[in-house]
Design brief:
This protein has no helices and 21 strands. By secondary structure, it is mainly beta. The strands form 4 sheets. Strands 1, 13, 14, 15, 16, 17, 18 and 19 form an 8-stranded antiparallel sheet that branches. The chain has a 7-stranded antiparallel sheet with strand order 2-3-4-11-6-9-12, with no helix packed on it. The chain has a 4-stranded antiparallel sheet with strand order 5-10-7-8, with no helix packed on it. Strand 3 and strand 4 form a beta hairpin.
Length: 246
C-alpha cells in the first residue's frame, strides 16, 4: 500500500514478526506498507540471549533509539559502538554494507528502528556511522509533552534525507503542519494518540499525508514516536533487507 488515497489521515496497526536469532518486532511500516520517504518502522525486542548476526542491507539510512537495555554494533567497514537506554545511532546502508548487533550486560533490549530510503543515484558518503548518548539528544517541552529530537534540527545525529524523528512522553497536545509533498506518522508505544476523530493505542498509529494541519493529543502518559519527511516520489521496492529504485 502507498499512502496516495484522497484521505489525509489513515489508521494503521502493527504485525508481529520474528527477526534475527531470537528477536521479534512489531512492524508498523515495511513489507509492502510504506510512507514515502519512510520504508520501515519497527518497535523491536531482543532477549538477552538473542542477537542479529552479521547480515547485509542496501538502499536506506537506518536510525535506532533504545528504550531499554544496551547493544553493541559492528559493521563491515570497521565501525563499532555501544549505546544504552535513551541513546541513538545512525548507519548508512549502501551496496556491500553488512552489520551485526548484540545485547550487552545480560539485559533484554527494546528499541525502535526507522529506515529512510536513499536518493536515486551515486552517493559520495558510503560508510557513515554515528551514535549519540542520551544527554546529547535535544529536549524541549511543548503542550505538556517532553519531546526528544532524535533526528532533525537541532539534533547532531544528522541524516542524508531531511527528516525529523521525535520521541514524545507524557500527556498533552501538539500541532502538526505538513506543507506540499510532506508525509508523517505517529506510532504509539504506550498510552494513546488522537487526531480529530481518529485514535491509536499501543502497537497502533496514524499516517498523515500533506498538505495538512492537525492538532494531535497525546494521552494516558504516552510514549509515542512522531516522524516526518518530504516525499521523494518515484517508485521503489523493498525486498527484505534491500531497498531499491525501480
Amino acid at each position: 500500500m502507498r499512502l496516495d488515497e484522497p484521505s489525509k489521515v489513515h489508521f494503521h496497526i502493527t504485525k508481529r514478526i520474528e527477526e534475527g536469532e531470537g528477536a521479534s518486532a512489531l512492524r508498523f511500516l515495511g513489507e509492502g506498507i510504506h510512507l514515502d520517504p519512510f520504508v520501515l518502522f519497527d518497535e523491536y525486542t531482543v532477549p538477552h540471549d538473542a542477537f542479529f548476526p552479521m547480515h547485509p542491507h542496501s538502499g536506506f539510512e537506518g536510525f535506532q533509539f533504545l528504550l531499554e537495555g544496551s547493544t553493541r554494533y559492528e559493521d563491515g567497514y570497521g565501525n563499532v559502538g555501544t549505546i544504552g537506554p535513551g541513546g541513538a545511532r545512525r548507519f548508512l546502508c549502501t551496496d556491500g554494507f553488512k552489520h551485526s548487533e548484540r545485547p550487552q550486560n545480560g539485559l533484554e533490549v527494546k528499541g525502535i528502528l526507522l529506515w529512510v530510503r536513499l536518493p536515486k543515484g551515486e552517493l559520495e558518503i558510503s560508510r557513515t556511522y554515528r551514535q549519540v548518548a542520551p544527554e546529547e539528544i535535544p529536549v524541549r517541552y511543548e503542550g505538556g509533552l517532553k519531546v526528544r529530537t532524535v533526528v532533525g534540527t537541532p539534533s547532531s545525529l544528522g541524516s542524508l534525507v531531511p527528516i525529523t524523528m521525535e520521541i514524545m512522553e507524557g500527556s498533552g497536545t501538539l500541532d502538526l503542519e505538513l506543507s506540499g509533498p510532506e508525509n508523517a506518522f505517529i506510532y504509539v508505544s504506550r498510552g494513546r494518540a488522537l487526531a480529530g476523530e481518529m485514535s491509536a493505542d499501543p502497537g497502533e498509529g496514524l499516517l498523515f499525508r500533506g498538505p495538512l494541519s492537525s492538532r494531535i493529543a497525546i494521552a494516558h502518559g504516552a510514549l509515542a514516536v512522531l516522524a516526518r519527511g518530504k516525499a521523494m516520489g518515484g517508485h521503489f521496492v523493498q525486498e527484505g533487507p534491500f531497498v531499491k529504485w525501480t
